[in-house]
Amino acid sequence: MNSNFFKEINHRIFSKYTTKRNAYNNIFYNENIPFATFKNILKESNIDAFFIPLNVMIKICDDLNISRQVFQENIISYKTAGGVNFIEKPILPIKITPVFHMLFAHHVGDGTVIDPKNGRLPYFGYRQFDKFYLSSFIKKIESVFGKINFKEEYFKKSTRVYCPPGISTVFFKYYGLSIRDFLSTSSRIPKQIMDGDLDSLLAVLIGFIIDEGHVDSTQITVVLKNKKLIEDLKAVCNRLDYESKITYRNSELYRDYGYLNILRKGMKKLYLDYLILNKKYPVINLGWKGEKIKDSLEIFNRDIYKTKGNCEIIFKILEKEQLSVNQLSNRLNMTRQGVRFHIHNLIKSKKIKLIDKTKDNWIYGV
C-alpha cells in the first residue's frame, strides 16, 4: 500500500477515535479479528514487510469514508492468503478486453487448474514449450493485471507458468465458472464471449490456434478432444464470417475428437482481421504461426502447383522414399492441393501407387 495513503489512514483514525483501542472497538466490535492483529496492521514499520488483509482494509476505509476508488489507487501490490507470486504495480480496475478473453482460451487450451484443497484458492498453470509463446502469454497476463513477481531464473528450467490465485479467481467469478469448466474435455466458450464483440471472438480463436492449431498451405486446423467446444469455435467462425467446417474421424483412437478446419478463404480473412487486431493489441501475436499463414497465402497465389517440372521432382523423391501429401507439401514449399494435383497424375500414369491408407495421412511411393 502507498505509504502516504497509509499515514493518512492512521491520521484519520487518531483524529476520529484518539486511540487504536477505541478505533478497534468501534470498527470491529462484532468481527472475529483480534485487537493485536488490528494494532499490528496499522504499524507503519510493517507496511513494507507484510500484506494487509483486504477485508480489514475495506472495513477501515468504509468507516473513514474513504472511497473504494481512492483505496484501489493506492494499492501497490496484492496477493491471496498463502499465495507465493504477487501482482506488483497492479492495473486497477481490471478492464475486460479481448486480451482478457484470450487468456480464457489459453487456460483451456494448454492450461491446467490446480486445486490445492488445503484452504488455498485454485489457480491456473499454463504449459508452453515454445519460448516465444510462453513469453507472449506472460505479456498478456501482465497487460491486463500488472507485473507479476516471477523469479527470472524460473523460466530457464520450466516450461510452465503459474498464475497467482488472485488472477484465477477473477476468471472464475467473471465468467461464473467452476474448475471443471476450465478442463479441456468439458469446457465451453462462456456466454460473455459468445455474445461479445468481434475483436474478443477473434482473440479467443487465435488463442486456440496458438495452443491447439496446425497451419498448412490450405487451411488452419484446430483439434480438440471436446466436440462441443469445437462446435462453439465453429459458431465463432460463423460470426466472424470465416469459411470453415467441422470434421470427425471414425477410428476408435480419435472418435472423441473434433476438427475445426478454417478453409483457405476463411484463413485469408482471419489473417487480415488479425493484422488489424494486432495493431490495437500488440500482445495478441500469432508469432511463427502467423508467419506460416502469411507464407501459405503467398504460396497459394503462385502457379507453382501446375508447373510440369514439379511432377518430375515429386516422382524422383518418391522413388527414394515413401511420403504423404503433407510431407511432400512441407518439403517442396507447395500447397497440398498442388501436390495432390501431381500425385493424381502420377497415379494415373502408373508411375506411383498408394502404399498405405491405414494412417491419417496416406503414404505414396513407387
Number of helices: 17
Q: What is the CATH first-level class name of the largest domain?
A: Alpha Beta
CATH superfamily of the largest domain: Homing endonucleases
| CATH-derived architecture of the largest domain | Roll
Let me know the number of strands: 13
Ends: how far apart? 73 Å
**CATH third-level topology of the largest domain:** Endonuclease I-creI
Helix/strand order, N-terminal first: HHHHHEEHEEHEHEHHHEEHEEHHHEHHEE
Overall 3D shape: elongated
Q: What is the strand content? A: 5-15%
Radius of gyration: 28 Å
Protein structure class: alpha+beta
The residue ranges in which pLDDT falls below 50 over 5 or more consecutive positions are none
Quickly count the domains. 4
Bin the helical content: 40-55%
Strand order of the largest sheet: 7-8-10-9
Mean pLDDT: 88
**Biggest β-sheet description:** 4 strands, antiparallel
How would you describe the overall organization of this protein?
The chain is α+β, with helices and mostly antiparallel strands. It has four domains: 3-75; 94-182, Endonuclease I-creI; 194-300, Roll (Endonuclease I-creI), CATH 3.10.28; 304-365, Winged helix-like DNA-binding domain superfamily/Winged helix DNA-binding domain (Arc Repressor Mutant, subunit A). The protein is built from 17 helices and 13 strands. The chain has a four-stranded antiparallel sheet with strand order 7-8-10-9. Strands 1-2-5 form a three-stranded antiparallel sheet, with helices on one face. The protein has a three-stranded antiparallel sheet with strand order 3-4-6. Strand 3 (111-114) and strand 4 (123-127) form a beta hairpin. Helix 6 (98-109) packs across helix 7 (131-145) and helix 16 crosses helix 17. The longest helix is centred in the C-terminal third of the chain and has 17 residues, at 264-280. The mean pLDDT is 88.
